[in-house]
């Protein structure tokens, strides 16, 4: 294996288990791990996003959207046909992959570089921080669905979620909102009246001197090698564990 890739992936593992990584480390890891991942894996999908920064028009997410929209159109047709009530089930969207799939693919990458199998679950702090970084990383990209470019939207509330809206081709102004990837229990005091949460754009996740992860504006990140909460005013930092 390439010596630089081996060094970098082993280094990321050490950062990961000790919770010292941020979005920049995650981006480098995904780029390097992409070619060592199986086709159709979550890591390969994430790497493809970074390899096609303007727009992504194929892969797991696109296939999931295509499947969902077929079911969504049928759901709307049933809704219009039924005289009372709604259809029994709302279509489910599979997203980029579940927590178990992401953890499995992450473990496979580490194992392929001679690192022992990860013993983590979706509630592990390192894993939750990884997903937090991934959401802000992917929030910069776009998806091409049919002839439409879909912007990815980051919603910060009781959970942090990466979402997209797809419009029905049969029923005007009917949209399916899909969650690409999410991490729960981010903001414990979120205002439940804000159904869509706070929509964040132009943010990057950095590791603060105080040890936590927080999303800050790109312009602020450029001027600070290692940010401290003391450098920011109220409402300028969106932390991993808002209270």
- Broad structural category: alpha+beta
Number of domains: 1
Largest sheet: 4 strands, antiparallel
Oligomer: single chain
Number of DSSP strands? 9
- The poorly predicted ranges are 86-91
Task: Give a written overview of the molecule.
A 4-stranded antiparallel β-sheet has the order 5-4-3-6. It starts with a helix and ends with a strand. The protein has helices at 3-17, 23-33, 42-51, 60-81, 99-112, 125-138, 218-222; strands at 142-145, 148-151, 153-156, 160-167, 175-183, 198-200, 203-207, 213-217, 238-239. The chain has one domain. A hairpin with a 3-residue loop joins strand 3 and strand 4 (160-167). 37% of the residues lie in helices and 18% in strands. The longest helix is centred in the N-terminal third of the chain and has 22 residues, at 60-81. The chain is an alpha+beta fold and 243 residues long. The model is unreliable at 86-91 (pLDDT under 50).
In brief, what are we looking at here?
With 243 residues, the protein is an alpha+beta fold.
Chain-wise SSE layout:
Layout: H1 3-17, H2 23-33, H3 42-51, H4 60-81, H5 99-112, H6 125-138, E1 142-145, E2 148-151, E3 153-156, E4 160-167, E5 175-183, E6 198-200, E7 203-207, E8 213-217, H7 218-222, E9 238-239
List keywords for this structure.
243 residues, alpha+beta, four-stranded antiparallel sheet, 18% strand, globular
């Amino acid at each position: 294996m390439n010596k630089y890739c081996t060094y970098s992936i082993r280094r990321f593992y050490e950062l990961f288990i000790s919770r010292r990584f941020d979005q920049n480390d995650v981006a480098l890891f995904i780029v390097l791990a992409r070619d060592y991942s199986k086709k159709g894996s979550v890591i390969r999908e994430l790497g493809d996003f970074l390899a096609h920064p303007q727009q992504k028009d194929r892969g797991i997410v696109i296939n999931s959207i295509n499947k969902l929209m077929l079911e969504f159109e049928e759901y709307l047709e049933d809704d219009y046909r039924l005289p009372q009530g709604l259809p029994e089930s709302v279509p489910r969207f599979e997203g980029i992959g579940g927590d178990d799939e992401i953890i499995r693919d992450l473990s496979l990458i580490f194992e392929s570089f001679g690192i022992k199998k990860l013993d983590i679950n979706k509630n592990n702090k390192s894993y939750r921080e990884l997903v937090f970084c991934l959401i802000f990383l992917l929030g910069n990209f776009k998806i091409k669905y049919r002839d439409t470019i879909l912007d990815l939207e980051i919603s910060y509330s009781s959970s942090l979620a990466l979402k997209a809206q797809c419009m029905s081709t049969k029923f005007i102004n009917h949209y399916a909102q899909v969650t690409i990837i999410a991490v729960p229990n981010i903001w414990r005091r979120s205002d439940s009246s804000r159904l869509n949460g706070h929509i964040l754009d132009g943010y990057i996740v950095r590791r603060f001197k105080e040890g936590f992860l927080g999303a800050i504006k790109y312009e602020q990140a450029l001027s600070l090698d290692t940010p401290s909460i003391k450098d920011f005013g109220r409402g300028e930092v969106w932390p991993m564990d808002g209270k």
